[in-house]
Amino acid sequence: xxxxxxxxxxxxxxxxxxxxxxxxxxxxxxxxxxxxxxxxxxxxxxxxxxxxxxxxxxxxxxxxxxxxxxxxxxxxxxxxxxxxxxxxxxxxxxxxxxxxxxxxxxxxxxxxxxxxxxxxxxxxxxxxxxxxxxxxxxxxxxxxxxxxxxxxxxxxxxxxxxxxxxxxxxxxxxxxxxxxxxxxxxxxxxxxxxxxxxxxxxxxxxxxxxxxxxxxxxxxxxxxxxxxxxxxxxxxxxxxxxxxxxxxxxxxxxxxxxxxxxxxxxxxxxxxxxxxxxxxxxxxxxxxxxxxxxxxxxxxxxxxxxxxxxxxxxxxxxxxxxxxxxxxxxxxxxxxxxxxxxxxxxxxxxxxxxxxxxxxxxxxxxxxxxxxxxxxxxxxx
Length: 381
Ligand SMILES: CC(C)(COP(=O)(O)OP(=O)(O)OC[C@H]1O[C@@H](n2cnc3c(N)ncnc32)[C@H](O)[C@@H]1OP(=O)(O)O)[C@@H](O)C(=O)NCCC(=O)NCCS
Known about the structure:
The chain is of the alpha+beta class. Helices cover 29% and strands 31% of the residues.
């Protein structure tokens, strides 16, 4: 059964928390709606049609939105905030789409000018209050393309419980993408109740550590099949194929969101070409293990050292400043891997000991894993 049909715009409620207001869309929103719908981030994460223009924006405001209210299929509000000059401005659209039996699908997009300011979080709090208290909803579901951290953070702040990743489910521009899903029930507390983890982009001088992209796959396969990588990283599939690269990329996002492990594509700051990978293969409340490998043609240029410094710095940054808050960072290196030991020592890691029989090499021989560590300088010990 759809939501109760309401007359647009007179029947649409106006909701406000004093800073952010939800109200019916108006014709003078069209220019800002078009800007928002031509924005690359909007296009990347939504099914909004490409080539968005004024006619489409006008159709959205004067036909699509009113029809949703009139039929009860979707209740979409314009978000309004006050700009720096004290004038009200359109800041986005948030909506609840009826999916039956007291359940609704939540959708939202922010105008680029207001992003990162908490406006969407406030708008969703108003929308959720309306959905649960006025519409009498039981459950609200959120779907997003896997990797849409901004969207995930907003619903995390609103108390949604993350349900996992659904593979090849969300139809988008001719393909089916992996989707993240989360729900909020009417009895849930509408604030974050778990720790927040993500995979931020870390920027160095010559290099950058960012989430993996599908465009990295060819170089990832090249690196995965490299003789030294195969020799010293026995857990890598052999041979390493394109499906292995895609599977690895997908697991990196879920592992990061759980705070269990973090893997970054190591890329050239200017060209964005893949140089290798760097990461935290294991994180605990006290320690962050650091791992790294480079493509053969990128070795000997100091990139590994820069990458390790970047990730250790992130690991040692306190949690309330977006880091991992690790007390110690450590590396575990096969006793025969001299090149990797050189990198670790150059980055200030000191020998802590050896894990006896810590690895089974690809040829079946057993070797020790040397453990080198650094203690977080912020601890002052
Ligand atoms: C998703 C979206 C609506 C969020 O709007 P917003 O106004 O930036 O939201 P907020 O300011 O309330 O919060 C966003 C949070 O995500 C964080 N964030 C943004 N990008 C991020 C990223 N790549 N990784 C991690 N966190 C990120 C922001 O820093 C902010 O957190 P903070 O408040 O702790 O700094 C906006 O980014 C958008 O319009 N994106 C395109 C459309 C879209 O993705 N819609 C959702 C489809 S499911």
